[in-house]
Design a protein that fits this description.
Number of helices: 14
CATH class of the largest domain: Alpha Beta
Strand order of the largest sheet: 3-2-1-4-5-6
CATH topology of the largest domain: Endonuclease, Chain A
Largest sheet: 6 strands, mixed
Radius of gyration: 27 Å
Helix content: 40-55%
Low-confidence stretches: none
Distance between the termini: 65 Å
CATH architecture of the largest domain: 2-Layer Sandwich
Structural class: alpha+beta
Length: 335
């Protein structure tokens, strides 16, 4: 079934060709680039503001494109992805290897960073629509209607996306989701060496027993329905599982990555009644200002001397010791 976004694009192409216009000529008339018009015609992007009115004017279509626009804009994903998304929502078993945190497992902030990086020239509101659509697809993950098996590359845990706090939240979500009875999460470690997949690979089993495979890179996805093609990709996925860590080992690696971020994320607490031993930082005094105070009774606790009743930054003892050592040895230059 043709999506409304694809229908809009195909009608625009039909009208253009009927009038013998090239993309370049139409672009000059509607004041949009040829590449934008080409992607609209193939359904790869949402229709930009102002284009429908210009098409109706040039093609004399009596408001047709303006009327179809609201329906075309309801679809957050390009036409080429509609089929696989609909299939995933019907599967009873979903198996996937992903070099990044899979979209069904992403937090909103993680998804936003990745989608922004993948669509650097898109308006912010379009990226937000993609984030909203991705979050909406996660509802079925918690419904017990489907069993999920995820294999994540270790780089998905080690490459920090966003702030340390945002990455910690993402890793915690992986741990939480892995506790669900219908979800399995494994990690393919760097130590596994070479393997067959450097893009994502998905296997879907439908309620009637039909099996499909889907491969996706950053710019294109391909569905495989032939039995031999699906069987070959299932065998590749099974090899990945044999190379991946066990469920228990995977959990330990995710926790290790999470704990590794903790020293980078200071805690903030309000001033407490615990015994304190505040003193002004010698570096702060050396610069002629009483700005920073440190608590000798609680190494790593720091506050603003001008607001002694305000919040306290709490660094771990290890992180604070490393910072002090680096400062003393001049690694940060002149402080």
């Amino acid at each position: 079934m043709q999506s409304m976004r694809h229908y809009y694009g195909s009608e625009a192409r039909l009208m253009r060709e009927k009038r013998g216009l090239s993309l370049e000529k139409l672009a000059a008339l509607v004041h949009f680039s040829p590449s934008t018009l080409s992607r609209v015609e193939t359904g790869d992007i949402k229709v930009p503001n102002g284009l429908s009115e210009r098409l109706d004017e040039i093609f004399e279509t009596d408001g047709f494109f303006a009327r179809v626009l609201p329906l075309a804009r309801q679809e957050a994903h390009p036409a080429r992805y509609q089929e696989i998304l609909a299939t995933v929502d019907q599967a009873m078993l979903y198996e996937c290897y992903s070099p990044i945190v899979h979209g069904l497992l992403q937090t909103p902030s993680h998804a936003r960073h990745l989608l922004r990086a993948a669509n650097p020239f898109s308006p912010a509101e379009e990226v937000e629509e993609l984030v909203k659509a991705r979050m909406g697809r996660q509802l079925r993950l918690h419904s017990q209607e489907c069993r999920y098996s995820f294999i994540l590359d270790e780089s998905a845990l080690r490459r920090r996306i966003g702030t340390p706090g945002e990455m910690m939240e993402q890793l915690q979500v992986l741990l939480n989701v892995a506790e669900q009875p219908n979800v399995e999460v494994q990690v393919l470690p760097f130590s596994a060496g070479a393997h067959s997949e450097y893009a994502s690979l998905s296997l879907l089993t439908m309620p009637d027993g039909e099996r499909l495979a889907y491969e996706e890179s950053s710019r294109i996805g391909t569905i495989f329905e032939e039995t031999q093609e699906v069987t070959e990709r299932q065998a590749l996925y099974n090899r990945l599982r044999s190379q991946a860590l066990s469920f228990e080992e995977s959990e330990l690696m995710i926790r290790s990555a999470l704990e590794g971020l903790a020293p980078m994320q200071p805690n903030v607490s309000l001033a407490s009644t615990e015994p304190r031993s505040w003193r002004k930082s010698t570096y702060s005094n050396g610069n002629g200002g009483d700005c920073i105070e440190v608590d000798d009774a609680h190494p790593g606790h720091v506050r603003d001397s001008k607001d002694p009743s305000g919040p306290v930054l709490e660094f771990s003892p290890a992180a604070w010791s490393s910072f002090v050592s680096a400062t003393v040895t001049g690694e940060f230059g002149t402080v």
